[in-house]
């Protein structure tokens, strides 16, 4: 099979420059293992597991499915009752995980323990300034999220076509392009823009191994790039989610001067989890990217990896043929 070798694949010991994003309620053993087994980097989402002990079991389940490298996502967010991050870190290290994707707040408080135990860090950023800071505190790679992405794109509204080259020209560590990627054309474009690989969430959410309900996958297949909403904009905590009756109501309330308390029940995480588990796409808020407009099937995760690498190689060869 064709391979695309980059500084990222060499540094992280994987075959293909394709990362499965760490998605809440989605990044479980079967999906992560399938991506890794195909040569990409699958990622288990730590906080999807209710306790650190459950995370250890989930990592063990993944290890039964593949012997290839697997990463763990640890999202660091301010909270009234924060998760026991120290215990999750210890669970990751004791399980022999050597790749962690951090997201949310500054990863610096977590760096020492991970580095002492030989763990490589990929930090997810939404701006060049945050990526530069992440490099300074010692992360091994950054994943740079353009405005197109699902979840939190930041408040700068810079799309990937500008953000990726802006980041790669300022950083010396590998850069993973995230937000808006679903096929080989995207991977080829990211490499040309200076990135060392791509991170995909929505594309992997819509695969056979993804634990979300089939009706959610079909909704993604049927949707276009126009079928998302940006919620929490007036609160300066923008999030891109699927357009449905709930997200549209949230936008209307906040644009009308409402406060978070007025939408708290609508955006409850438990309701979003119900969407993925029970398949009612109108039951709550759920994250999806604009890239759903490029997704038209529900293949295996392995097929996604292999297809994208082959397509990217073909696109790069086609483009090179334009030079005379």
Briefly summarize what is shown.
This protein is of the alpha/beta class and 324 residues long. It has 14 helices and ten strands.
Output the number of helix runs. Answer: 14
What is the strand tally?
10
Largest sheet: 8 strands, parallel
Catalogue the unreliable spans: none
Gross morphology:
globular
Give helix % range.
40-55%
Number of domains: 2
The strand order across the widest sheet is: 1-8-7-6-5-4-3-2
Rg, alpha carbons: 19 Å
List SSEs in N-to-C order: HEHEHEHEHEHEHEHEHHEEHHHH
Which structural class is indicated by helix and strand composition? alpha/beta
GO molecular function: nitronate monooxygenase activity
Organism: Lysinibacter cavernae
Protein name: Nitronate monooxygenase
Enzyme class: oxidoreductase
């Amino acid at each position: 099979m064709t391979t695309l070798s980059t500084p990222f694949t060499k540094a992280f010991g994987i075959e293909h420059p394709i990362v499965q994003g760490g998605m809440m309620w989605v990044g479980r053993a079967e999906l992560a293992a399938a991506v890794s087994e195909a040569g990409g980097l699958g990622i288990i989402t730590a906080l999807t597991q209710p306790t650190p002990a459950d995370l250890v079991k989930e990592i063990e389940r993944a290890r039964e499915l593949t012997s290839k490298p697997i990463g763990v996502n640890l999202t660091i967010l301010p909270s009234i009752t924060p998760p026991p991050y120290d215990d999750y870190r210890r669970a990751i290290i004791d399980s022999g995980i050597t790749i962690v994707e951090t997201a949310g707040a500054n990863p610096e408080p977590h760096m020492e323990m991970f580095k002492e135990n030989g763990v490589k860090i990929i930090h997810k950023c939404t701006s060049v300034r945050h990526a530069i800071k992440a490099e300074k505190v010692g992360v091994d790679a950054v994943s740079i999220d353009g405005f197109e992405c699902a979840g939190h794109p930041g408040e700068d509204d810079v799309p990937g076509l500008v953000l990726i080259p802006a980041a790669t020209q300022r950083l010396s560590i590998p850069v993973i392009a995230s937000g808006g990627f679903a096929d080989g054309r995207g991977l080829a474009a990211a490499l040309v823009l200076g990135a060392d690989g791509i991170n995909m969430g929505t594309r992997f959410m819509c695969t056979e191994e993804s634990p979300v309900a089939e009706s959610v996958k079909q909704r993604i297949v049927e949707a276009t790039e126009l079928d998302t909403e940006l919620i929490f904009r007036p609160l300066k905590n923008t999030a891109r989610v699927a357009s449905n009756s709930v997200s549209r109501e949230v936008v209307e309330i906040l644009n009308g001067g409402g406060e978070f308390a007025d939408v708290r029940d609508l955006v409850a995480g438990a309701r979003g989890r119900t969407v993925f588990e029970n398949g009612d796409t109108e039951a709550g808020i759920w994250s999806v990217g604009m890239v759903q407009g490029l997704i038209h099937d529900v293949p295996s995760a392995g097929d996604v990896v292999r297809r994208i690498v082959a397509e990217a190689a073909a696109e790069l060869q086609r483009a090179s043929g334009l030079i005379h």
